[in-house]
Amino acid sequence: MEMTLPCLIAIHHIDDMDEEVFHRCLLWLPKDLRHPIMRLRRKEDRDRSMLGALLIRYALSRTCSLPWKDIQIQKNEYGKPFLAASPNIHFNLSHSGQWIVVMLSEHPVGVDVEQIKSIDFTGLDLFFTSREWDRLSSYEGQQKLEYFYDLWTLKESYMKALGVGMSLPPNSFWIENDPCITVHAPERQQNWHFQQYALSPDYKLSACSASPTFPADICRLASEHFVNLVAQHVSDM
After folding, report:
1. What local confidence, expressed as pLDDT, does residue 179 receive?
2. What predicted TM-score, i.e. pTM, was given to this entire model?
3. 218 lies in which domain range?
4. CB 59 within 8 A of CB 104
5. Cβ atoms within 10 A of the Cβ of 237, count?
6. Which of 44, 129, 133, 230 is the most exposed place for a label (fewest CB within 10 A)?
7. Does the residue 5 lie in any domain?
8. Is residue 181 part of a domain?
């Protein structure tokens, strides 16, 4: 499986993972990650968290030619992870429903995937600027739901690319997507670029980058195939 930067990889995980396979995979992760994963109450959350942690390490090892055991991931003061040995390699992870997605680049990036579900819009205006909310409120039904998830994933991807967490209020900037996707953040002058991908009919996937160059396609993998790839890669290290 060839990997060049930037790249976007998505794992499709639809079934509960076999317990024996899960615990075998867990041993490929550092000890300080295993305990937080095992503390998650729901099995599907444990599966997704474990696969996400594997996905980040597999992608970093392949793109940076790093031995698996030498991958040390740290976090900034806001909780955004980064690769200690190669600070010029940037990555971001997101998961929702049946999909786990990671994007890697030589420039700061953020990615967000969300499963489209019916929601109660009450109180959600607090997360948007008035112009965003007015535009959203002009739609109805499925169109309103689709636009909400477009807007939400774009805003999330931008906040994650910045790496400042919720210290940046989501209603302090606004996103426009007509005729092109742009972010308006009065106190931040850096140019940011956006791309949306057709991952699956019931999902929205948005990416934000400091570079205008995005992956042309998504590399999609079934979770079973991905686990086999990792097993082979780890054994070759």
Report:
1. 84
2. 0.95
3. 14-236
4. yes
5. 10
6. 44
7. no
8. yes
